[in-house]
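Customer ticket, subject: "Can you confirm the structure for Endonuclease/exonuclease/phosphatase domain-containing protein?"

Message body: Hello, I'm evaluating your service for our small team and ran a test protein. I'd like someone to confirm that this is what the system normally returns, since I don't have a reference to compare against.
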Amino acid sequence: MLRGIGVPVQRHYSPFLRRSNSFPPYLLICKSTMSETPKPVLPSFVSLPDDDKTAQNPTHSGYTFRLVSYNILAQAYVKSSYFPHSPSSCLKWKARSQAVLTYLKNFGADFICLQELDEYNSFYKNNLESVGYSSIYIQRTGNKRDGCGIFYKQSSAEMLLTEEIHYNDLVDQLDPSSLNLTKSEDDVANGINKLDISTDELTVKKKASKGDPNDPTVRLKRDCVGLLAAFKLSHPSSPLIVVANTHIYWDPDWADVKLAQAKYLLSRLSKFRELVLSRFNSMPSVIVVGDFNSTPGDKVYNYVVSHCSDTSNEVAPIELYSLYGSNGGEPEFTNCTPDFTATMPSEIQDDPRRGNIVQPASIKIQRGRFEKSFSDTPRNEASTTPK
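Agent reply: Thanks for trying us out. I re-ran your input and got the following:
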C-alpha cells in the first residue's frame, strides 16, 4: 500500500514497536532525517526464474502485459494522528497526489487497479488519461468518498464488459425467516449458499458508526464495493482476461462480514466469467486484485484459495491461486507500520494448471512493500504467457 508514500521509514524501527504517548527512537530519526518532503522511492521489478514460468508450459509462447494494484490511501482518511510515523509534509494532498501520480506513471503498467481511490474526477482520471489510460470507477455507497478504479492502456487492451459489485446487496439476500441463511440461488441471482451471521458469535460491543452489530441488516451494510471488467488484449491472438478489483471490509472483529463479501465476490466473478465465455466464445483468464484486509491462513484467504487447500471446509465456485503463494511463497510481510506488520495478499490468479492462463514473470519489491506484476518483453524482463 502507498500509505505515507515516499516515506521509506521501515529501516528505522522494529515492527514490534507500538504507538505510545512518548516519541519512540524511530520517530525521532524519521522526523530529523525527513523534515522535508522527499522524492518518491521508485520500485524495481525482479524477474522470476524461467523454470517458474515454463514448468506448466514448455512452449512458453504468448502475450505479455503488466498489471499493478495499490491501496493508495484516500485523502479523506489522511490524518497525522493516524500516521505518526510519517512526516506531516508527506501527508498533505499536494505532495501525496504528485507522489502517487509519479509512482503510477513510473510503473509503465498496462493495467492499474486502485483501492481507496478518491479525487477520481478531480485528479486521477484526467492525469492518467493524459498518458494513455482509460478508466472505470465505482464509488462506495453511503457518504463514503472513495472507491475502486481500474485504469487500462488504450493501446494495450479494449474493454468489453463491466459489472459493479455493491456488497450492501448482501442485505437483500438475507432470508427473513432465518437470519443465518441467505435465499437460494434460484431466488437471488449470484446468491451465497450460507452466510455465517449467527448472533451468538457476534461481537456484542456497539460502535456508533455501525449501528447494532446484532442486526445482520446493519452488520452487512459496510458500503464496500468492487469492479469486474473483461478485456481483449492487443495481440494477434486477441486473448481475453477478466480483472476484478475490490476492497474488503477492514475490521478484524468482523471476520464473518469479510468472508460474506469474499463469497459474494467469487460468486459474481464465476458468473461473470461464464457470461464473457458465452458472449465472446472464449474462456478468459482471471486476475483478482484488491485490498482484502486479510492475512494468509485466515477465513477469507482460505476460502479464496480453497481449491488448492486441504483444510478448507467450503470450496469456492472458481478455482483461484495466490500469485505469490504459487510462485515462491507469500512474502514475510506486505504492510509494515508501527501498528501492523503482516502479509496482506493482494493478487490472485485462476488455476495455473488450466489452459489459457497468464503467469507472473516479475515481481516488484520495495523495502517491505510487495506487489506482483505482469511484465512485458520490451522492458527486458521475462515474458508472461497464457497457457
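A couple of notes from the result: The first strand starts at residue 44 and ends at 47. The helical segments are 25-33, 50-54, 88-91, 93-107, 120-129, 216-219, 255-280, 299-304. Feel free to reply with more questions.
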